Amino acid sequence: MPFPLGREKYTIKGKHSETLTPRKDGDYIKMEIEIYETLEEIRKQIKKCEGKHKQQIAYSSYHDSLTQVCFGCKKVRTNMKL
Known about the structure:
Elements: E1 18-22, E2 28-35, H1 39-49, E3 55-60, E4 65-70, E5 75-78
Parallel strand pairs: 2-5
Antiparallel strand pairs: 1-2, 3-4, 4-5
């Protein structure tokens, strides 16, 4: 099932917004997106979730950005400008 385009909402500077992420069974997980200014702010959030929640972390050397997808918090945290 493809990602439902047009249903994403984004805000800047750590404010929350909603997006829907597809799962294997076609159902969706409601995720919030938090956009931060620095890598250090995201690293602090990663350490808070470490050992408590399942999470996926990605770093882009091209964009110099860090992204965390935390399935426990149901949040995507990044410093990439959208």
